[in-house]
Structure formats: structure tokens, C-alpha cells
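Bench notes, afternoon.
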Amino acid sequence: MSENGCVHLSNFKSTWGTQYYRIVSSHFVACTSTEARIRKALSCVCFVCHESGPRLHSCLNCIYFGCFGDHMNTHSHNHKHYLTVDLSYGFVHCMSCSDYVYDEEFLNIAKENKIKQSRCLNIGLSWWPWLYSDHQPDLIKNFTKNHRIISEKSTFGLRGLLNLDKTCYMNSVIQVLVHTPLLRSYFLSEKHKCSSSQDGNNIALTCFICEFGKLFQEFYSGTIVPLALPKLLYFIWNHAGHLATSTEHDVHELFVAIIDLLHVHCQRSASHSVSPQRVCLDFDGGSYKIEKCDCIIDQIFTGELRSDTVCQTCKSVSTKLEPMRDVSLELGDNKSGPSTLLDCLRSYTSAETGIIAKCEHCKDNKEKSKQLSFKSLPVVFCIQLKRFESTKLGKINKKISFPMEIDMVEFMSAPILSQTLDTDSGYGSSSPLLIEDNRYLLFAVVVHVGAIIQNGHYWTYIRHHQDLWFKCNDENVAPASLDDVLKCEGYLLFYHKQVLEYK
């Protein structure tokens, strides 16, 4: 192993020394003169998409600027130019090792140039290059969990969204997705490897993942000025034509459309594969395959719904598994029906009787019962409380109470079917119940105010971190209490799984 931990950097230095890094650092990172700052502003854009984002990198072997993780990654592997320089901070990244590498000589050059920049431009140092010293291991060892990098009351990552004329429905969904923990970690760590056409066109117009990923950079850039999203809205309109009108839309419909868009564009990435893994029976007795996709969207938002139909004459069971990304729960009318989320879920998973349909075994129309249950639940569980009916113009305004924490175990297939089906189903009383931890915590609630879906207003409650809640109402972001959240007339509820099983 080389001194700096990267053989590519060691080989580069043995050939070129530090001269190339010194040029990039002084002219395009620290900018030790006003002329250098002007040069950087004019020339530091990606050579492919012409964007000047916060993660722009320069090739250390040739004159090339590119977006980190996308165009720079392509250039590096095509030309075997593995070393790149972050133009914001001057850190060196090795594309072959997929990690930042630290060299004492390079760090000293960065430090010298930062001092020159401070003196020439009469500005303070916004950051200081990290240099290793012998006493630092002791500091790290003594750095306990009681030390917080971000304070408990920090609002970092919160940002309002401008209403572009009846776009509160979009703002509400975006606030939920940007504050979804696993999705946030995925985009901020730049796991997406875009495989869209590299023909020089703006990649954001062809890859929704790239455009969506920029949201996370904007939200976590430290800027608090409200953000406008015309490009994202335009992209959604172009790919979901039924939403391309300047009228109020159902926030649930938009959520489904955005998740589908993200999933479709994830499938274009070479970083995942799709493989059929399970076979199940449909209601007519035929077999079909459910494709198991391992893209980030399916990993976070997709579970499986199980439907078992039992003939009351011959007791034959027809089973169907369907992928699900949300569940819509009936509320009844304003005067009757369930009053709690648990009541709604129990109604949803209760057996439906009196169904008359053809039985493939009896070869005749017979009475059947139908049982729904959750075979598996997604990490992020979206629940729609159906306050709007397609056949009615009015809205169901009844209060449905929902908890901060919910255990979904009683609605899972294993415990339900062990009581309703015989041992031939595989869930008999003698079968061991291998049940995962299905406890969930509430982290977002979308609220609709108004009499009908075509008119009204949406806002979102977000659990920022720990137990701090905020009300995100377009450009206005204000603190909220848990009591405010639990007493609101929720329309979409978002729960996050507490314990994740890694497979």
C-alpha cells in the first residue's frame, strides 16, 4: 500500500509531481486573484451538460471539467484518468478507488493557496484543509456521542417552496420525498450512476433522477431562500400528461406519478438489475411472475399485497401477490365508519364474503370469500385516507386519529392466514411464524383544506430530526408541535420502518 493509500495517486506523483495539482488549486479552487475568480466563473462548467453544480470536478491529467459521479466518471474510465479535483474544496478523488485520497503535499498546497486567497481578496477563511497530526487519534477516541455536530434545534435542510400558481400539491409531495431519510442518503451520497445519452444535451431533460437529485443539493446547501421548481414541474408535465394542467391536482395522484417516474428512470441505470424471483397464482388459477427490482425506489417504497380467494364449496384457495407502493383506506361517510387508523386497517384486511365468481375447481359460479393481507411492507409506508370519492364532489371531513408509532404485525399475511387458512396454505397453526419487526414511526403528514379536490390547499408536516416537527406551507416553514400533527385532518400519512433488515 502506498503512503497515501492510493497507488494511482502515488504513480501520478512519481511522474508529474505536484505541478498539475498546484495549477488547478490556485486557478480554479482557491482563486488567488480576482482574474482567477472571473476565469473560474466563466470556464468552470461541465463539458457535457454545461452545468456548474456544487460537485464539479476537474481532471488532474487533462483539461476537462465534469459533474462528479456522472460525466467525470465516464471521462475517467474512458481515458483512464482516475484522479480528479473537487473545485469547491480542492480535495482529490480517485475514480478507480471510489474514494477521496489525502496527500500531505497536496494538502499543504491547498493550505498555502487558501492563505493567498484570503490576503489577495481580503476575505476570511471559510474552511481550513485538514492536516493529520499525532494527537488527533486521541481526540477522535475521546469524541463521545454527547458531542453533536448539528444542534438539536438545527433547521438545516429545511427550505420553503414557491407556489407557481396552484402547485401546492407538488410542493407538499416534494417536502415529503426530500425528507425521506433513505432517499436523502442515497442522493446526497451520489449513488446514482446516470447511463443516459452523453451527446452534450442537458442531461436533466432526459434523466429525471439527475434532475430530482439536484433538489437534495439545493435543500442541504445551507440556503434558506424559498426555492422555485419550474424545471421539475415542466418535467413532470412532459412525462405525466394527465397532470399537465394549471389546475389543482390530487397530491396522492402526483405522489404515485413521481414514484413511477423515479422507478422508470432508475431502470435505465446500469447500477441495478431486474430479475423475476417469485411465482404466484392469480384468481383464474394461472401462474405469472412478479419481477423483483433492486433499484433504490423499490427498495424504499415497494412492498407486496397478498390476496387469497377461498371457494366456500370446495375450499380451494387462489392466491395473488401484487407489488404495492401505498394503500388507500376507505373512511365511510362523515357520520359512520371507522374513526381511527387502526380501524381503517382492520376493515381493509377483514375477509370479504358473499362474492359470486367462477371456481376453476368446481367449474361453476360459487360463493367465495376474499382476504387481503400484507406479505411484506415497504420501508416507507404511504397511507391514503380516502377523503374524496370519484363519484362524489364532496369531501369526507371526519377526524381519523392516527398514532405516532404503529405496529403493523396484526395486518401481515403470516398471522392473518394462520388463523383463516388450513395447514395446506403453509400458514397453519403448526407452522412457525417468521415475522419481521414491522414497527413504524410517523415522519410526514400531508393535509388538504377545502371542500373539493379541485379546489383547496395542501401543506405538509415534516418530522425534521428527533421529535422536531415543522409545517411546510409553500414558501413558509414554521415550527409545529406533535399535538398539532396528531390532531390535524390528515390526507396522506407517511410512516418509516424503525428496524431495517439488511439482506
